[in-house]
Amino acid sequence: MINIFGQTLPEMTEMLMEWGFPKFRGKQLADWMYGRSVTDFSVMNNLPLKMREKLAAECVIDRALRVDQMDSSDGRTSKFLLNFSDGVGVETVLMRQPYGNSICVSSQAGCNMGCAFCASTLHGMVRNLTAGEMLAQTYYINDLLKQEGAKVDTIVIMGSGEPLTNYDNVLKYMRLMHEDYCLGMGYRNITLSTSGIVPNIYRLAEEGLPINLSISLHAPEDALRSELMPINRKYPMAEVVKAGAAYGNLTHRRVTYEYILIDGVNDNIKQAEELTDLLKGQLASVNLIPINPVVERNWNRPSLKRIGSFEKYLMQHNITVTVRREMGNDIQAACGQLRNRHIEEN
Ligand code: SF4
Q: What average pLDDT does range 265-286 have in this prediction?
């Protein structure tokens, strides 16, 4: 059986034409599957019966199944554990922000990047997700929102996985999301977050997609960054920042550097100074993320005073800076925790 959820219009049209159906049938199929979110061929009543029977015999529209859900007490953040047909599960998060509904999509089941602060990597990586599986996460939430007369407004590819090591599938997903026959999402509403896979940052810059790029930095010098993010041994910080600068220059898009603030580890003023030196003159901004406490490592969130001092130093030195407002702490919003609980229980 061919899973056609995740196929582009030209791919579907080619298949249908090989079966002897006219070209315009491809668009009709896309309208049902992507436009109206229908998964059952038998209800696609403007398609000839012969075509519906052939589709049902050869193809499936395989979406995601909800296994678990957690809602924050304020009702604004919901985390879903979604399973695909092979039983592999991923987390997808809906955040109802003042500026619209934002979702955090996973690009791999698990992750093998080994970041020290991240629960998604504890069980390693199971496999890459296909474009259709990323799309299925998006449609699952979009269908929910539709019932309230709302939709998914922005997407961050920041769930489990390193999107730039699943490059082709992630690119296909973003392009599909942008298509009018799919959700017609503006590229500017899509953010891809990477741990710093240098060659693919350059490659992405050449694609000409005006998406937002976010790079996880988390430390202003190599020794600490390697400790927090082992990928730094392969792609050292200076190379990552150089690639980020090239991305900004080529695309004229401001690159965001993510910086998790850990009390007494990377939040002192000397480190703010090093960070400033590193990013000086770049089309860049810094997003400070006070960490959710990690008990196993005795890592704590810095005091508001320390967060404020770090932020102020960057601002005073002309670095654009934001501090991420925490959402959904009470539902373990840190990526990977819900999925891990299920893996461990089973
Ligand atoms: S932070 Fe991202 S890249 Fe690092 S281990 Fe977690 S999912 Fe992977």
A: 95
> Is 70 exceeded by the pLDDT of residue 136?
yes
Q: What is the pLDDT of residue 333?
A: 52
Q: Where in the chain is the domain with CATH 3.20.20.70?
A: 65-345
Extract the tokens encoding 124: 């390693």
Give domain 2-60's CATH architecture. Orthogonal Bundle (1.10)
Substitution candidate for ligand 1 out of 121, 197, 225, 258 with most atoms within 8 A of CB? 121
Residue 42 has pLDDT above 60, yes or no: yes
Q: Is beta strand 255-261 parallel, antiparallel or unpaired with respect to 284-290? A: parallel
Q: With 80 as the cut, is the pLDDT of residue 220 above it?
A: yes
Identify the residue whose C-alpha is closest to ligand 1 atom 6. 118
pLDDT in tens, 56-78: 999 999 999 999 999 988 889 99
Strand segments (E) across the chain: 2-3, 59-60, 65-71, 77-83, 89-97, 100-104, 108-110, 125-128, 154-157, 190-194, 212-216, 255-261, 284-290, 320-323
Residue (of 77, 64, 129) closest to 103 by Cα position: 77
Q: Angle CA(215)–CA(337)–CA(76) in degrees, nearest 5?
A: 80
- Residue 343 has a pLDDT of 73
Neighbours of 245 (CB within 10 A): 16
| Nearest-atom index, ligand 1, CA of 158 | 2
Q: Please, what CATH class does the domain formed by 65-345 belong to? A: alpha beta
Cα 56 from chain centroid?
Answer: 32
**Mean pLDDT of the region 178-190:** 97
